[in-house]
Design brief:
6% strand, elongated
Length: 154
């Protein structure tokens, strides 16, 4: 977001930062077409609209090709391919929480490397976690991170 031309660089008040961030997140999710997403918006991918958008793009390209095939020197055009999966940070299938109740190696032997302090207590399923998060509050998820970064840059 810092590389957007309209990024103000500094905010005088938290309210000002929140207002700017809301507009940015709306643009980024609903208007910005990502090359890694086959030129789809994040919202189109998130809400399962990619097949419909892809089909509509294909129809437009076919009509353009039918009207002026001489303009398409490489033959009949197709929209950019959609990726099979898209991740910022690909989650693991399982996340394990380790029991940290025992002493670390450094507490028992000076200079020793810390290792596992117990056995797994709980396995977290990423899909279940995502189901429990309120997906409608995107600003609420990212805004605290933005506020932290802004407070560290002053």
């Amino acid at each position: 977001m810092k590389y957007r031309p309209e990024y103000p660089g500094r905010f005088n008040q938290q309210r000002e930062a929140r207002g700017w961030a809301r507009g940015f997140f709306d643009w980024y999710n609903h208007e910005h077409h990502h090359s890694a997403l086959g030129l789809m918006t994040p919202a189109a991918v998130h809400y399962g609209q990619t097949e419909a958008v892809y089909e509509q793009r294909q129809q437009v390209l076919e009509a353009a090709y039918a009207a002026h095939p001489e303009r398409f020197v490489r033959g009949k055009p197709t929209p950019p391919q959609l990726p099979d999966e898209v991740w910022i940070n690909q989650p693991e299938n399982e996340h394990t929480i380790i029991d940290l109740s025992g002493p670390a190696a450094s507490d028992t032997k000076p200079g020793a490397q810390a290792g596992s302090r117990g056995t797994a207590l709980l396995v977290l399923d990423p899909a279940k976690h995502l189901d429990s998060v309120d997906q409608t509050d995107v600003v609420g998820i990212f805004l605290p991170k933005l506020e932290l970064e802004l407070s560290q840059n002053h």
